[in-house]
Structure formats: structure tokens, C-alpha cells
Design brief:
Length: about 110
């Protein structure tokens, strides 16, 4: 299964996670793959997310881990506490100036 998320600004990027444990970043405006890396060597990626600025990525997989990555060089920033089962969802939360969580759509409307 693949998961995709986009960042809309000067360039549009997509982050895709695949069943073989690999993550891919794509430039949608140039229709070109930017980077590929093995994020979860022994497990299927169930979900992935890009930070609003596109600098970081999250991946969650069947191995019970969530990993935080730098998208520029595919370096692992942090391995988040393993879960007791598969990770089926992950996301970034945008905080407003009043430190209240907002969805990306709510943030764009302000």
C-alpha cells in the first residue's frame, strides 16, 4: 500500500511510502523523483506525512515504529517509541500563534 501527501508552494512535493519499506520524494511540478531511501527494511510502510515546510517526513510501518526523517538527505532524525503493533497513521500538527493545533486547511484560512 502507498501513502501520499503534498506540499503546495513554489514547488509541489509528494512523499510516497511503499510496501517494500521504501520512501520516495517526488517533484510534482517537474514530474521527477527526487530521492528514494529504505526507511523500514523489514516492514511495509502504512502511512507517511510531510511537514508543512517539506523539510521533514514521518513514516509509520508494520514494524511498530514511527521514524522522523530529513527530506533533503534522507537522514534519520529520530526513531519514535516503538508501538506494540503496526502503526497505521501518522501526521504533523501545525500550531497557531496561540499554540492551539490547527489543520493545514485552518492554517491557510487565517
Amino acid at each position: 500500500a502507498a501513502a501520499t501527501t503534498t506540499r503546495a508552494d513554489v514547488d509541489q512535493f509528494a512523499l510516497c511510502g511503499r510496501g517494500d519499506g521504501r520512501l520516495y520524494t517526488w517533484s510534482l511540478s517537474r514530474l521527477k523523483q527526487i530521492r528514494m531511501w529504505v526507511a523500514h527494511p523489514q516492514a511495509e510502510i502504512n502511512d507517511c506525512a510531510l511537514s508543512p515546510d517539506g523539510m521533514l517526513a514521518l513514516s509509520g510501518s508494520d514494524d511498530g515504529t514511527v521514524k522522523l526523517w530529513q527530506t533533503a538527505d534522507a537522514q534519520l532524525v529520530r526513531l519514535l517509541q516503538p508501538c506494540s503493533g503496526p502503526v497505521v497513521g501518522c501526521c504533523f500538527t501545525v500550531l497557531s500563534p496561540d499554540q492551539q493545533p490547527r489543520t493545514r486547511q485552518q492554517q491557510q484560512q487565517q
